[in-house]
C-alpha cells in the first residue's frame, strides 16, 4: 500500500507518499480500506519530530480515518467486511489501509458521507471525554470553548448546543465569529480585540471551559469560570508553563485538569474503549439526525498532505481539513 512516510523530520515537504508493507490485523482488530483521514495539529508536531507515536504504534501520521472494513482479525465479532466505519487512531491514518482495534471503531452515522466521517473521531472523542464525561456539562449550563473556529471548536459548539447548554466561544475575526454563531454559539468574542472574561462575567461565568491555549489563558480562564466550574485544558497553543492562581481556585472551588487522548490506554476506566462507546451512543445520533455535522474547510488528496499541512499552518482554516485517499492527485477542493 501507499502511505505518508517521514524519512526525516521537518517542514511539510518532509512527508513522502511512498510504498510501505500492508498492515495485518491481529486478534481483536480489523483492516480498514481508508477513504479519508483528517489533519490534526498533533500531526504537524509529529512531522517536526516533537510528538513521537506511543510505543508499538505506526509511525505513519494520522489520528483518525474513515473507510470500509476489508478484513476481520481473529476473534472479531459484531463487525462485517464492507461495513462503513470511522476510527480513532493512535497513528497510521495517512495511508491506504490501517489496522484498528474494534474498541476504537465506530459505524458511520446514517446520512453522513464516507469522506466527511473522517472528521468525526478525534473531535468527538476529545470533546465528549473532556466536556461531558469529565466536566459533566448538562443542559442549562454554560460552556466556554476557545477557538470556536477550529476543528474542535466547531464540533464543541454544535454538541453543547444540542445538549441544551449555552455556548460562549472565542475566534479571530468578525466573519469567523458570525460562523460560530450560525453553529449555535450564543456569545462570541474576538480574542484579538475583546475581553472574554468580561463577556463571561455578564452571564455568571462558565461552568465548563474547554481550553486550547494553555499557559496564556490560565489566569483569565479562572477569572471567567463560574463557582464550582471546571477548566479542562487540551492544548498548549499559548504556552506549556504557567502560574496557577490557587487563591482564585479556592474562592471558586475550581477544578483544573488537562487531558491528552492519544496516549490513553485502550481499556480500563476512562480508556479509549469507554470514550468510543459513549461517543457511539450519544454523539453519533446527533450526526444522524443532523444536529451536528463535520464542518469541512477543504478536502485534499492524501498524497498532497504537505499542501494540507501548509494550509493549516497558514491560519484562516474554519473547521477540518480532510485528506481523501484516492489514486488521482486532483487539486485542492475548497468550498
Ligand atoms: N488533548 C487532546 O487530546 C487534544 C485532541 C485534539 C486537539 N487538541 C488540541 O486542541 C486544540 C484545538 O484543536 P483543533 O483541531 O481545533 O485545532 P485547529 O483546527 O487548528 O484550531 C485552532 C484554533 O485556535 C484558535 N486560536 C488561535 N489563537 C487563539 C487565541 N489567542 N484565543 C483563542 N483561540 C485561538 C484559532 O482561532 P482563530 O483562527 O479564529 O483565531 C483556531 O480556531 C489544538 O491545540 C490541538 O492540539 C488536543
Automatic annotation (TrEMBL):
UniProt-listed Pfam families: ADH_N, ADH_zinc_N
InterPro entries linked to this entry: ADH-like_C (IPR013149), ADH-like_N (IPR013154), ER (IPR020843), GroES-like_sf (IPR011032), NAD(P)-bd_dom_sf (IPR036291), Quinone_OxRdtase_PIG3 (IPR014189)
SMART domains in the cross-refs: PKS_ER
Domain (Enoyl reductase (ER)): residue spans on this chain: 10-323
SUPFAM superfamilies listed in its UniProt record: GroES-like, NAD(P)-binding Rossmann-fold domains
Record keywords: NADP, Oxidoreductase
Molecular functions (GO terms): NADPH binding; oxidoreductase activity, acting on NAD(P)H
Keyword Nuclease: no
Name of the protein this chain belongs to: NAD(P)H-quinone oxidoreductase
Keyword NADP: yes
Amino acid at each position: 500500500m501507499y502511505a505518508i512516510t517521514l524519512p526525516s523530520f521537518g517542514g511539510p515537504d518532509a512527508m513522502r507518499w511512498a510504498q510501505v508493507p500492508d498492515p495485518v490485523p491481529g486478534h481483536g482488530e480489523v483492516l480498514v480500506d481508508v477513504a479519508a483521514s483528517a489533519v490534526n495539529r498533533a500531526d504537524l508536531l509529529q512531522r517536526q519530530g516533537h510528538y513521537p507515536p506511543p510505543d508499538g504504534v505506526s509511525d505513519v501520521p494520522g489520528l483518525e480515518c474513515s473507510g470500509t472494513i476489508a478484513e476481520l482479525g481473529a476473534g472479531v465479532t459484531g463487525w462485517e467486511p464492507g461495513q462503513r466505519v470511522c476510527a480513532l487512531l493512535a497513528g497510521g491514518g495517512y495511508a491506504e489501509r490501517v489496522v484498528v482495534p474494534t474498541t476504537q471503531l465506530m459505524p458511520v452515522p446514517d446520512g453522513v458521507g464516507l469522506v466527511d466521517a473522517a472528521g468525526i473521531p478525534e473531535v468527538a472523542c476529545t470533546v465528549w471525554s473532556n466536556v461531558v464525561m469529565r466536566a459533566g456539562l448538562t443542559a442549562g449550563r454554560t460552556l466556554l470553548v476557545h477557538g470556536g473556529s477550529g476543528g474542535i471548536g466547531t464540533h464543541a459548539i454544535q454538541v453543547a448546543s444540542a445538549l441544551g447548554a449555552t455556548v460562549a466561544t472565542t475566534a479571530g475575526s468578525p466573519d469567523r465569529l458570525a460562523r460560530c454563531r450560525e453553529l449555535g454559539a450564543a456569545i462570541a468574542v474576538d480574542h484579538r480585540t475583546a475581553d472574554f472574561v468580561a463577556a463571561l462575567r455578564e452571564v455568571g461565568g462558565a461552568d465548563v471551559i474547554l481550553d486550547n491555549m494553555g499557559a496564556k489563558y490560565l489566569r483569565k480562564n479562572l477569572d471567567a469560570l463560574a463557582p464550582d466550574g471546571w477548566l479542562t485544558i487540551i492544548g498548549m497553543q499559548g504556552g506549556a508553563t504557567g502560574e496557577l492562581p490557587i487563591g482564585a481556585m479556592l474562592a471558586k472551588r475550581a477544578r483544573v485538569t488537562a487531558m491528552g487522548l492519544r496516549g490513553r490506554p485502550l481499556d480500563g476506566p476512562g480508556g479509549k474503549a469507554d470514550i468510543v462507546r459513549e461517543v457511539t451512543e450519544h454523539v453519533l445520533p446527533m450526526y444522524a439526525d443532523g444536529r451536528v455535522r463535520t464542518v469541512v474547510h477543504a478536502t485534499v488528496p492524501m498524497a498532497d498532505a504537505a499542501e494540507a499541512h501548509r494550509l493549516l499552518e497558514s491560519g484562516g482554516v474554519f473547521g477540518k481539513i480532510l485528506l481523501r485517499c484516492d489514486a488521482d492527485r486532483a487539486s485542492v477542493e475548497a468550498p
